[in-house]
């Protein structure tokens, strides 16, 4: 049995060019003019609902429970059960603007030139829409968007579990080769298309996973671990909003059940460790690479905006320290064997990836 707890957070990301930018760059200091809300075109090129001030920070606590059964010394079958809590802390406001709500507008009637929802300030509207007015525009179905409120959001739940096996197929006094394979079941709640702020626990995609690890004793208490991990994300269907090219906010009527093929990915580790009795320290270089997501609409809708900026890579380093209580258990100083590992992971380079620092606590026991 193994329990892994991980905490991380971010407020910046690496964009498509690899530059480090704020997470909120698309929504902060944004002029809410006709380029975002085409309906404002009727009021002239200078019509604006105001300018946004938007700040977000994401904090996550994830866990994974691994339960395994040793068929023999070299083969283990088991299940990985992920769970977590994500929180997006949001500060959002709208100020300025020269356009407000038209008090004569009848939302029960179609929008026409004589029944128009907006009016210039001082020529029908008494004030600009402001923060609560913008919340109304985004959440009221009558305006066509029907999102949930832009506010701090917490998500708690289970991720996508994995069923699989681990097989040590080669072993000498100096070398070990271990192959892992499994299927990840896409049962978690994925991203909510009506919530701009939520961070999903899992992506609800059913995936095929395989991993190969090589362990080598380098002598003088040093060791080497090499790892390559492959995940193939199978095709499925997902209901999403489909923005037009360049559109920041997709309307509710754009929502469609799409054919989804999320990009497959590779992960690589190069790790060097050093042992001192029951203690071990290690340093690891990690690379993550993911291909583009692909979507297809049965209605022929252009899905290129959903696919843009979904190819990902990240370079990270990790340092860790671990302690093994197996010798203490054998000496009857502990009621059960326990291995504890503390680890920190830092992202130093990426593309379309968050600037994240992870902290891990991993506890492993054998019964």
Which helices and strands, and how do they pair?
Layout: E1 2-10, E2 12-14, E3 20-22, E4 31-33, E5 48-70, E6 75-95, E7 99-101, E8 118-120, H1 130-139, E9 153-158, E10 162-171, E11 175-184, E12 207-219, E13 222-233, E14 236-240, E15 256-261, E16 265-276, E17 279-290, E18 294-296, H2 304-307, E19 312-324, H3 326-330, E20 338-351, E21 353-354, E22 357-365
Antiparallel strand pairs: 1-5, 1-22, 2-3, 2-21, 4-5, 5-6, 6-9, 6-10, 7-8, 10-11, 11-12, 12-13, 13-16, 14-15, 15-18, 16-17, 17-19, 19-20, 20-22
CATH architecture field:
Beta Barrel
* Helical stretch tally: 3
Instruction: Note the main sheet.
Output: 12 strands, antiparallel, barrel
- Which series of helices and strands comes N to C? EEEEEEEEHEEEEEEEEEEHEHEEE
Q: What is the CATH superfamily label?
A: monomeric porin ompg
CA distance, first residue to last residue: 8 Å
**What is the SS-derived class?**
mainly beta
Numbering strands along the chain, what is their spatial order in the largest sheet? Answer: 1-5-6-10-11-12-13-16-17-19-20-22
CATH class: Mainly Beta
According to CATH, the fold-level topology is Porin
Tally of separate domains: 1
In what range is the share of β-strand residues?
Answer: over 45%
The total of beta strands comes to 22
Please, what is the average pLDDT? 95
- Uncertain runs: none
Radius of gyration: 26 Å
| Helical residues, percent | under 10%
Which shape, going by the Cα principal axes? Answer: elongated
């Amino acid at each position: 049995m193994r329990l892994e707890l991980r905490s991380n957070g971010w407020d910046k990301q690496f964009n498509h060019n690899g530059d480090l930018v704020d997470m909120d760059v698309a929504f902060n200091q944004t002029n809410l003019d006709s380029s975002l809300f085409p309906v404002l075109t009727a009021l002239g090129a200078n019509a604006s609902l105001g300018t946004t001030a938007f700040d977000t920070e994401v904090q996550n606590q994830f866990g994974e429970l691994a339960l395994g059964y040793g068929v023999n010394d070299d083969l283990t079958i088991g299940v990985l059960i992920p769970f977590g809590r994500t929180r997006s802390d949001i500060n959002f406001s709208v100020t300025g603007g020269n356009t407000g709500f038209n008090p004569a507008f009848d939302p029960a009637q179609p929008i026409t030139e004589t029944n128009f929802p907006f009016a210039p300030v001082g020529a029908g509207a008494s004030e600009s829409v402001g923060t609560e007015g913008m919340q109304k525009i985004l959440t009221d179905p009558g305006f066509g968007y029907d999102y949930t409120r832009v506010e701090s959001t917490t998500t708690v739940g289970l991720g996508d579990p994995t069923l699989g096996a681990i097989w040590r197929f080669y072993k000498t006094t100096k070398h070990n080769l271990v192959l892992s394979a499994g299927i990840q079941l896409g049962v978690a709640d994925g991203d909510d298309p009506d919530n701009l702020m939520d961070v999903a626990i899992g992506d609800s995609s059913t995936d095929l996973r395989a991993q190969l690890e090589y362990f080598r004793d380098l002598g003088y208490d040093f060791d080497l671990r090499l790892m390559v991990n492959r995940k193939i994300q199978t095709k499925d269907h997902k209901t999403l909003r489909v923005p037009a090219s360049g559109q920041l906010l997709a309307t509710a009527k754009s929502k469609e059940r799409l054919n989804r093929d999320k990009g497959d990915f590779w992960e690589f580790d190069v790790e060097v460790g050093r042992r001192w009795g029951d203690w071990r320290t290690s340093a690891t270089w990690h690379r993550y690479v993911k291909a583009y997501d692909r979507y297809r609409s049965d209605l022929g809708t252009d899905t290129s905006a959903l696919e843009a900026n979904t190819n990902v890579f990240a370079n990270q380093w990790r340092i860790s320290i671990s302690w093994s209580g197996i010798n203490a258990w054998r000496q009857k100083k502990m009621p059960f064997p326990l291995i504890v590992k503390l680890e920190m992971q830092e992202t130093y380079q990426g593309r379309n990836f968050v600037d994240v620092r992870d902290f891990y606590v991993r506890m492993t026991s054998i019964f």
